[in-house]
Specification:
It holds the Pfam family Acyl-CoA_dh_N. By secondary structure, the protein is of the alpha+beta class. About 50% of the residues lie in helices and about 15% in strands. It folds into 3 domains: about 120 residues, Butyryl-Coa Dehydrogenase, subunit A, domain 1 (Orthogonal Bundle); about 110 residues, Butyryl-CoA Dehydrogenase, subunit A, domain 2 (Beta Barrel), CATH 2.40.110; about 150 residues, Butyryl-CoA Dehydrogenase, subunit A, domain 3 (Up-down Bundle), CATH 1.20.140.10.
Length: about 400
């Protein structure tokens, strides 16, 4: 549990080389221009990054092909170490785009959508959050009504990643499809292909960070979908999407680990090379102590992240419980994301005035980090889930 396999470390070296050769030299320019680097997606597909948890029959390397969830976390960590936007593109592309289709889709849906998503020829989005709703996922205002030919979808979604790129092929959304016997909303998941009449992708958000990442609001007005657009069972949309988020939290933990690692490495190198009063600033306890604390936080995040990933792989093999994975995912996500936010603050402080300048990567990491404590369930939600796992809350 405390040491990754040689295969995982060899794979890490491949992803790191890709990140340092094909992302790092250009990411500052892409960030300034808020430009989504679409050309990277097929390159990531060629490396097999989108297919690590997908069975071979759909083009992936999972289930006997050598891929696993731990390998996905390794890839996200290494990409996130260079740029968080590129890391979230992979994380969301797999965890929120591919996984719902892989887990709940019919064989026809899997054959239709997965091969292109795995190859990096396409991306998929995951439409859960709504304007004004936030974490209240069980009562969406978006509605889908049956008609003679299928469904008519009306409503809106907010903050949806990978939903408006030139290669986005489909977005899966939750919608109210009726009422349960107790009067609560019946929520189902529906797949909406890009370009469907009545489906509008709103202009890109002007965001604090993740400038490369593609993020949009979505609007549905009389959007007609065929009957086979239903993903999984009718009325099971909330359960399906919350299960998807459990896995996504581990992936976000890996992304946060990449951010924290980058800040520790950058700040340590700077503290060794930057001199003041005749010696490196790292020789001063005012600099070395915060970096020592950061090293502890990074190591804690690493162990919790890969414990959660290992448990996820063990669950897939039938050797662990859903409850264990759920608790480990919440703990890892909470620790890693809060460590990442702290890491950016420490690194920026070590860089001093230079840390406030956009020419230094720590400024970009500072902007990018805050969303880690919000997306895939806020830190408050993670504490609620952890407390529930301890039997303390309903």
């Amino acid at each position: 549990m405390f040491e990754l396999s040689k295969d995982h470390e060899d794979f890490r070296a491949v992803v790191r080389d890709f990140a340092e050769q094909e992302v790092a030299p250009y990411v500052a320019e892409w960030d300034r221009e808020a430009r989504f680097p679409t050309h990277l997606v097929p390159r990531m597909g060629e490396l097999g990054l989108f297919g690590l948890v997908v069975p071979e029959e759909y083009g992936g390397s999972g289930e006997g092909g050598g891929g696993d969830f731990t390998a996905l976390c390794v890839a996200i960590e290494e990409l996130g170490r260079v740029d968080q936007s590129v890391g979230i593109t992979l994380s969301a592309g797999v965890g929120l785009g591919i996984n719902p289709i892989l887990t709940y889709g019919s064989e026809e849906q899997k054959q239709r959508w997965l091969p292109d998503l795995v190859a990096g020829r396409a991306l998929a989005g995951f439409g859960l959050t709504e304007p004004g709703a936030g974490s209240d996922t069980a009562a969406p205002r978006t509605r889908a009504k049956r008609d003679d030919d299928g469904w008519v979808l009306d409503g809106a979604k907010a903050f949806i990643t990978n939903s408006g790129t030139d290669i986005t092929s489909v977005v899966t959304v939750t919608a109210r499809t009726g009422e349960n016997a107790d009067g609560s909303p019946q929520v189902s998941a529906l797949m909406v292909p890009a370009g469907t009449p009545g489906f509008t992708v709103e202009p890109s958000y002007r965001k604090l960070g993740w400038h490369l990442s593609d993020t949009h609001g979505l609007t549905f007005e009389g959007c007609r979908l065929p009957a086979d657009s239903l993903l999984g069972e009718e009325g099971q949309g909330v359960r399906q999407f919350l299960k998807t988020l459990d896995d996504g939290r581990i992936a976000i933990s890996a992304l946060a680990l990449g951010c924290a690692r980058a800040c520790l490495e950058l700040a340590t190198d700077y503290a060794k090379s930057r001199t003041a009063f005749g010696r490196p600033i790292g020789a001063n306890q005012g600099v070395s102590f915060p970096l020592a604390d950061l090293a502890v936080a990074v190591e804690s995040a690493r162990l919790l992240t890969y414990k959660a990933a290992w448990l996820k792989d063990e669950l897939h093999a039938g050797r662990r419980s859903v409850k264990e994975v759920k608790q480990a995912a919440a703990i890892a996500k909470l620790q890693s994301t809060e460590a990442a936010v702290s890491a950016t603050r420490v690194a920026t402080q070590v860089f001093g005035g230079n840390g406030f300048m956009e020419e230094y990567p720590v400024a970009r990491f500072y902007r990018d980090a805050k969303i880690l404590e919000i997306g895939e369930g806020t830190s408050e939600v993670q504490r609620m889930l952890i407390g529930r796992g301890l039997g303390l809350t309903a």
